[in-house]
Amino acid sequence: MTTHSEMPEKPLYRAPGIFLQFPNLIAAESTRHGGVSEGAYASLNLGGSTLDKPENVAENVRRFFNALQVPLERVAKSHQIHGDAILKVTEPGRFETFDALITGKPDVQLAVTIADCTPILIFDPVHNAVAAIHAGWRGTVKHIVQKTVAALQKEYGTVPEHCYAYVGTCIDECSFEVGEEVAEHFESAYKRADETSGKYFIDLKLANRDQLIHAGLKNENIEVSAFSTVLNNSDYFSYRHEKGVTGRMLATIGMKTHDL
User: Fold this and answer.
1) What is the pTM of this model?
2) Which of 258, 260, 256, 259 is nearest to 128 (CA)?
3) Parallel, antiparallel or unpaired: strands 75-79 and 93-96
4) Domains in the chain, ordered, with CATH?
5) CA-CA 20 to 30 A from 77: which of 60, 112, 135, 204?
């Protein structure tokens, strides 16, 4: 399933269509449009670890969450290390070394940073629990998505088949060329050999979608982004395509209460 809501021509964000049926859920993925950053970071760079001016990043973050009507003091983020550590978030804030965040608290808006790696957002509408996952190739081979679904089950009683999920915009298979040292970690279903170069192409979207299915989610409850950070580089930042000098996007999910 690949659908997106109707948005203006150069939106600050795109809202996954799979979540639009839930009016009290805020879920979105930023683009590179609508910010104040310049040059390689133009324009909505949301990455604080870049060499962009901090005041520009701060303004961009304000604009993004303002567009979603989310107060900044309700955002929870973590410095990501391409691992498989999962944090149960009980209060908003800035955390360290976690690549997946889960919460059952309303008005705590989870966010992960991306610029080629795969963001995955999950919503359990029965127990009102959400997850935001950052899955690069290392996190993918460590099965961070399946581990996060297991964490939702343990912490909130989540039944996977009741969940909805979005596999977000990342580097697509045709652009993610790797050597044997990376390819060897992936099953054959997720890698394609290039006999001319001796390299491989890895499909992160498919690998993470399948992890959701293996964890128990229904295929019809999963949306996969139609976009690519490389092929659609005019709309998204790509660390690889732009040789490391570029901005970052955010993928975010959270439940709101009626006082927002």
Assistant:
1) 0.95
2) 256
3) parallel
4) 13-255 (3.60.140.10)
5) 204
